[in-house]
Amino acid sequence: MEVRTLCVIGAGTMGTGIGQVAAQAEIVVHLLDNAEGSVARSQSLLQKNLQGGIDRGKITPEKADEIRQLLHWETNYDRLSEADWVIEAVFEDMAVKDSVLRQAATLVRDKVPVATNTSTFVVKELAASYGRPAHFLGMHFFNPPPAMKLVEVVPTEETLPEVTDAAFALCERMGKTPKLAPDIPGFVVDRAYGALAAASIEVWALGGDPEAIDSSIEMGLGHKMGPLRTADLVGLDVMLAVLRSLHQQTGHPRFEAPAKFIELVESGKLGRKSGEGFYRYGG
Ligand SMILES: NC(=O)c1ccc[n+]([C@@H]2O[C@H](COP(=O)([O-])OP(=O)(O)OC[C@H]3O[C@@H](n4cnc5c(N)ncnc54)[C@H](O)[C@@H]3O)[C@@H](O)[C@H]2O)c1
Questions:
Q1: Mean pLDDT to the nearest integer, 171-190
Q2: CATH number of the domain at 189-274, please?
């Protein structure tokens, strides 16, 4: 399965980053997004990512130009018929994903693999929306895709083994490290981190000091970044949505968000992006 042309549906934070790493691997990329302003936002995010890469000595200005030339933005889905591979990265909303995948199935060629970058839905359900489950699987990239090495590859029972193998090969070509993950809510990383984060948030809600909780876990478990610092970075609204989704899908009390945490999020303290969460940032 030679991949020369990749279509990424949804040119947001993840779609743009995935497009960039594919272009870095010399793949022609079409980023498809239907929202007003999304193309400009995606182009400026790409520019910021590339400049960051140049500043840190990760890519040369010449390579950045090559990447720019391989990326194209479209506000319709026509290019799907030319794709050798498709990655869906639209909003984490089942109705939106369902409609996008149904439309994609009318345009994508029969044996072309389609991957979803969903974080919280089971892949099997999205495979049913797409309608050709043998050529459908999950490829869960981490944010920001240019920097994060891991991709969880999530086949369903119906995914053809050669499609899973091709997903591994594509990740490696993009300089990523693919790991097989089971098709369960949260896959591996969000499920394990969700449980640790919820337990740490509970300790905080019971009176624990954020810095003491984080540094204890960093030192005691050898983690690079404690769970509350990580939650502030992810965004506490996103963290709450992840916990709610895991709780709703699994029924495990371990994913229940404490009331004090819900109050924190509802008061607008969303972590780094709002200047305050478990910690205060800036001035
Ligand atoms: N942000 C993260 O940290 C992260 C990490 C891993 C996976 N994910 C997953 O990646 C996916 C995208 O997340 P994101 O953070 O990039 O979101 P985002 O909001 O930054 O981008 C989503 C993009 O999809 C576009 N879109 C919405 N409906 C569309 C449609 N019908 N057709 C074409 N484009 C459409 C939007 O205009 C937007 O540009 C979600 O499934 C999310 O769960 C996110």
A1: 97
A2: 1.10.1040.10
Q: What is the rounded CA–CA span in Å between residue 20 and residue 55?
A: 16
What kind and span of H or E run contains 152?
A: strand 150-155
Residue at token pair 């409609």: 99
Residue nearest to atom 28 of ligand 1 (CA): 90
pLDDT digit string (tens) for 48-82?
999 999 999 999 999 999 999 999 999 999 999 99
Which of 18, 33, 87, 118 to probe ligand 1 with, by most ligand atoms within 8 A of CB? 33
- Supply the pTM of this predicted model: 0.93
So where are the chain's domains?
Answer: 5-180, 189-274
Which of 119, 188, 230 has the most ligand 1 atoms within 8 A of CB, as the residue to mutate?
119
- Residue indicated by tokens 């193998």: 165
**Domain boundaries 5-180, corresponding CATH code:** 3.40.50.720
Which atom of ligand 1 lies nearest, measured to the CA of 42? 39
Give the residue numbers annotated as catalytic, written as ranges.
140
Pocket of ligand 1 (CB under 6 A): 9-15, 32-35, 38, 89-92, 96, 100, 117-119, 141-143
Distance set, CA 275 to CA 177, 227, 233 (Å): 33, 18, 11
